[in-house]
Please model this.
Amino acid sequence: MPDPRRARGITGEDTAARMLTALGYEVISRNFRTGYGELDIVALDRDCLVFCEVRARVGRPSTGIAYALDSIGPGKQFQLRKMAKEWFRLGPPALRPTKHIRFDVIAVALSVSGRVLAAEHFRDVL
Model:
């Protein structure tokens, strides 16, 4: 039997990647493993490199989104910064030049059955 948490994570990440692509971002990496954890999505937004954390939670749209954001405390923020440094150290793919780096969060609220109820993109949150 598949792990329901992993299935929620995949649904959330797929939803987030589609959102970013629809907004004109170029997704350049997904599920990039570092020694500190996994970067969900790395994307380009014009001249900005974006490290995007995806949080998928079960609940009504308002509570699911709020709960997802609340789950990114100081420890997770520190971990995300370490993972971004590791991404650069391990040699990112050849990219067009960027002027900025940003950390975004996409929070996804799901029904118990795994249907996407709502998704919200928060720019430059860390």
In short: The beta strands are 26-34, 37-45, 48-58, 100-110, 116-122. Residues 4-122 form a domain with the Trna Endonuclease; Chain: A, domain 1 fold (CATH 3.40.1350.10).
